[in-house]
Amino acid sequence: MNTKIIPYGKQNITQEDIDVVIEALQSDYLTQGPKIKEFEEQFANYVGSKYAVAVANGTAALHLCTLALGVKEGDKVITTPITFAASANCVRYCGGEVVFSDIDPATYLLDINKVEELLQASPKGTYKGIIPVDFAGRAVDLEAFRKLADEYNLWIIEDACHAPGGYFEDSKSNIQKCGNGIYADLAIFSFHPVKHIACGEGGMITTNDQTLYNKLLALRTHGITKNEMEYSNSIGFACGQETATQQYPGWYMEMQTLGFNYRLTDFQAALGTSQLQRADKGLKKRKTIASNYYNAFNNLPFIKGQSGEVAGHAYHLYIIEVENRLGLYNYLRENNIFAQIHYIPCHLMPYYKQFGWDEGDFPISESFYKGCISLPMYPTFTDDEQLLVINKIISFYNG
Ligand SMILES: Cc1ncc(COP(=O)(O)O)c(C=O)c1O
Fold first, then answer.
1. Quick one: residue 30, left, alpha or beta (phi over 0 = left, psi -120 to 50 = alpha)?
2. How far apart (Å, rounded) are the C-alpha atoms in residues 268 and 264?
3. Residue 89 — φ and ψ, nearest 5°?
4. Distance between CA atoms of 180 and 191, rounded to whole angstroms?
């Protein structure tokens, strides 16, 4: 038996990563220094957006987005049940109401037809926004969602935590990269260790909207501005004397809105920037792994569905749908292969059940949950390890 545990996802830290982190630790700035701007600029360039705002984690990124978009008590926002809870929770942080809508069984993504039915069933203005998720790394067709959103005057937050480097092809066959800000108002990413780019904890918001960008910058740091053009108090007040000097003193700043400390540290940003240099290489390896799984499992009767070979898929996860999922999960664990389940449908979490959601509400999501299992997928996963995983799965079913 293989003695080494094979996880479903894993970070890859190189000597180069370690060197840049040490350099950042030895610099004058542990936080709020130059590494943040560098990471933001390079990340915006990578996804093709105008602006990027680095934050403490993906959840903070989502929270800042709902704050910047002005979500308030009772605002209804649509999202998928097949996601990590944070995609929904950000609406609740602002007192909004989460409205789940079922997935498409072929893509595992929010089904746009179901969203349209939901929108048509209520007067315009009932809903405020949509949070589609590039689940497992498969890019949502945001062009189609934008069209629908415009009809109903909705904003879009793309949860692209699983999909840096992913893309979809629009109706003119142009490649639209996840987080490029063309169709979504805002997009968010996470740099948790199992993600494509690891900072330990970390997140990024991307956008092409300058007003939202400025709001996000302030909200990330307590709602404080140091931009003189935005001050509302007088120079006299700022100087602490009625006969004021001609300019605001160096210490002066204003807290103009209620924000948070959601900043990333400089040494995390240094790690993120270093990881970003290898993002394309990692993505290429993920695609090879996906292709190997696809070819090994294609047409096997016990595989009811799989992520498949999809152009633009960023393959954060490789999911298969199987019979006797519990048996397979335990068998793989006995063999030191730690597959995972993504996700327990969000609407069936006890927290969301208290709002009235229950079993049977989303048959496609629930049926997906009963059979889904995420197989090992990360750039340092070797060919031999993959062969072992594939053979173990086949031998579990074929005996
Ligand atoms: C789809 C999705 N959204 C949001 C998050 C939240 O990101 P973080 O863990 O960095 O807060 C995650 C992270 O697991 C995620 O997978």
1. alpha
2. 7
3. -60, -30
4. 17
> Which residues pair with residue 374 across a beta bridge?
319, 340
- Residue 139's alpha-carbon distances to 166, 314, 388, in angstroms, are 6, 8, 29
CB contact at 8 A, 362 and 103 = yes
Residue of 23, 354, 49, 375 whose CA lies nearest to 204 = 49
Q: Which of 367, 383, 373 is nearest to 296 (CA)?
A: 383
Q: Are 369 and 82 in contact (CB under 8 A)?
A: yes
Probe residue for ligand 1, chosen from 57, 159, 192, 197 as the CB with the greatest number of ligand atoms within 8 Å: 192
Provide residues with CB under 6 Å of ligand 1.
57-59, 83-84, 86-87, 133, 159, 161-162, 190, 192, 203
What span, in angstroms and rounded, lies between the C-alpha atoms of 290 and 307? 8
pLDDT digits (tens, 9 = 90+) for 17-46: 999 999 999 999 999 999 999 999 999 999
Per-residue DSSP letter, 177: E
User: If we measure between CA atoms, which residue out of 320, 311, 317, 332 comes closest to residue 286?
Assistant: 317
Instruction: Tell me the pLDDT tens digit for each residue of 204-232.
Output: 999 999 999 999 999 999 999 999 999 99
How many Å lie between the centroid of ligand 1 and the Cα of residue 24? 26
Pairing of strands 155-159, 127-131: parallel
pTM for this model (two decimals): 0.97
Q: How far is CA 198 from CA 97, 202, 268, in A?
A: 31, 8, 9
> Omega into 167 within 30° of 0, i.e. cis?
no
Cα–Cα distance between 14 and 36 in angstroms, integer?
20
Listed in sequence order, the residues at least 6 apart from 41 whose beta carbon sits closer than 8 Å to its beta carbon are: 52
Q: Give me the helices (H) in the chain, please.
A: 15-25, 34-47, 58-68, 86-93, 112-120, 142-151, 210-220, 235-239, 266-276, 279-297, 325-334, 350-353, 363-371, 383-398
